Amino acid sequence: MQHSISVSLIISTYNSPTYLELVLQSVMAQELLPQEVIIADDGSASDTLVLVERYQQSFPVPLVHVWHEDDGYRLSAIKNKAAAKATGSYIIFLDGDLVLHPFFIYDYQQSIRPDEILVASRVFLNEKYTRQLLQNRFTPVRYNFFKAEKNHLSGIRLPWLQHVVKGSTTHEGARGGLMGVFRQHFIRVNGFDESFTGWGREDSDLYVRLLNSGVKRRNIKFAAITYHLWHPVLSRQSLSTNDALLEKSIADKSVWCTKGISQYLPVAATT
Questions:
Q1: Rounded to the nearest 5°, which phi and psi values hold at 149?
Q2: What 3-state DSSP class applies to 105?
Q3: Rounded to an integer, what distance in angstroms lies between the CA atom of residue 47 and that of residue 140?
Q4: In this predicted structure, what is the pLDDT of residue 177?
Q5: Do the Cβ atoms of 249 and 207 come closer than 8 Å?
Q6: How many CB atoms lie within 10 A of CB 253?
């Protein structure tokens, strides 16, 4: 059943074409390809478009570039715009610094169940190994513990163990860049809340609304592995404001946000 589900892979990026190139290469090396890949570009300079156009010439599935003008950190908005363009019934959101294990899409599709959000696994690569990957540009990730900075065990693929380790079933530890969700469920809660600008908590807020709407969370352990490329930590200056927005969503038991994906969809798609 799972292989019949059409998957749109949405990769978010901002002015990191060298990172994005490694991610695209890892998509091309998948044992099972998604139906399409959509680049959710939060206002990158033209070198990202040049990279995407170069890969479009030989990419094995449609590769779509969705861009808006750089007006600060607006990840929620660009993800909504990309999801509005998606043609798959299932969406996997991926951050542009996550290189995929060759069985990532396969493991994800094997794990899909009705009325669930899925969260994939992530191991953090250290700075030294990340620089090697960026320098070589085409070297596949050859993981071992010495190349990791943290989450070492998450780099081990043992799919039969994924049902043993459960993890969080709430919005705690939510990761919007590792999330899989049915497109209809995403639209039902109006997608990401664009009131969240700057880094942080927009993914937690989405989880809150999905969980309140009756969707359950399940974590994929020891499968659907991603390798997080090292980079400096992003600014957290908007975190207190976004924390307040999240707390309000929790208190209100929200299932809908006012400013979400509906503004990019035909009216019939939101009813």
A1: -100, -40
A2: helix
A3: 23
A4: 84
A5: no
A6: 10
Alpha-carbon gap, residue 206 to 174, rounded angstroms: 9
Helix then strand then coil, % of the chain, to nearest 5: 40, 20, 40
Q: DSSP label at 191?
A: S
DSSP H or E run through 225: strand 225-228
- Residue 172, number of CB atoms within 10 A of its CB: 10
What pLDDT does 270 receive?
Answer: 56
Residue 240 corresponds to which amino acid?
A: S
How far is C-alpha 171 from the chain's CA centre? Answer: 15
What is the tens place of the pLDDT at every residue in 96-126?
999 999 999 999 999 999 999 999 999 999 9
Are 194 and 83 within 8 A, CB to CB? Answer: no
φ, ψ of residue 83 to 5 degrees: the values are -65, -30
Q: DSSP of 56-79, one letter per residue?
A: HTT-SS-EEEEE----S--HHHHH
Q: What are phi and psi of 167, to 5 degrees?
A: 80, -175
